[in-house]
Amino acid sequence: MSDSVDSAKAKPVYQKWWHRWIRTPKELRAMGVVGINMRNARFLLPNNPRRLYTLVDNKLRTKKLAEEQGLSVPETYGVIRSPYDTRNLESLLSKRSAFVIKPARGSGGKGVLVIDGKEDGYYIKPSGSRFSGDEVRHHVSNILAGLFSLGGQRDVALIEYRVRPARILTDISYQGAPDIRLVMLHGYPVMAMLRAATRESDGRANLHQGALGIGIDIRSGRTVRAVHHGKPVTHHPDTGLELIGIQMPDWDRILEIAVTCQEMTGLGYLGVDLMVDQEIGPLMIEVNARPGLAIQMANGVGLLRRLEPVEKRHTLHPGEDLEQKIEFSKRTFGRD
Q: Which cellular component appears as one GO term in the record (predicted)?
């Protein structure tokens, strides 16, 4: 049961599908496109009890859950919880040449500061731009004030290991670390994409800031399609490198981690973000109870075409284990 869009008949549809304003609701349904209203009413509300959101809306809590499950996560160097703690920031960072500072309750990559090294008393970002110690403290203060957090709530700042991505992934991401997003329903992987940075996105793997969305085949772990600002591309706009046909490292382990994240949170519908470190391998970065819908553009496939078969499977076989769920997803959604 493949939903490949390689045929001559299907190709023109998917090249234009992002231009939603010229599509009627009936046409979108025929394409299997899931919009925000459908996502919320049909998949989020029935499957994600509100009480479980606290497990994933706070990255510190999610990391603790993951570690209890034996999953690898980026090492936490420190946590800044109050303005008073910022006085010790320089001391905390003095032994670290590279690190990441992020809000515990952030979303969409907002507030993430990546530092690659130090030079002449300045912190160096992947782009080569410099941050003074005062600027880093100011950034942390903004995190504490809730500038980047969900609902503007006061937050805490995490200081973490700076992931060194596997070389094959670094090559297709401009001055930034790419990550992998998987969307899950009832523990079945339904769709995956690689998010790769561009010059425009300033080293961040955020599609809304100009990063690339690169669809990944669930069965093989190879990239099958790429988009930039919703338009299909085959090469990186900055490096010129080919984006299609790239094999994700440790793909089976990545799928296992994603399914485990569903089991440990109890959420029925979720997104799992991972990175592949050159030395450590796959790392769980975060879990999202409200995964976005741009993954459909990256794959050229409407989510409904993946979610409906999983709904039926889960109803008929509610007790399937991790291996069975992965096998079903590979068999049903694989493109090659």
A: cytoplasm
DSSP line for 123-172: EE-TTS-EE-HHHHHHHHHHHHTTTTBGGG----EEEE----B-HHHHTT
Q: Are 322 and 187 in contact (CB under 8 A)?
A: yes
Can you tell me whether residue 330 is helix, strand or coil? Answer: helix
CB 120 within 8 A of CB 112: no
Query: Within 13 A of 249's CA, how many CA atoms are on the CB side?
Result: 18
Q: Give 336's pLDDT tier (boundaries 50, 70, 90).
A: low
C-alpha–C-alpha distance, residues 332 and 30, integer Å: 19
Q: Give pLDDT tens digits for 90-140.
A: 888 988 989 999 999 987 778 999 999 999 989 998 888 899 999 999 999
Report the C-alpha gap between 10 and 14 in whole angstroms.
7
Tokens for 188?
A: 């079945």
Tell me the pLDDT of the chain averaged across its residues.
90
pLDDT tens track for 46-99: 999 999 999 999 999 999 999 999 999 999 999 999 999 998 898 889 889 899
**CATH numbers and ranges of domains, the chain:** 11-56+166-333 (3.30.470.20), 75-160 (3.30.1490)
Distance CA 275, CA 18 (A): 27
Identify the helix (H) or strand (E) that includes residue 66. Answer: helix 59-68
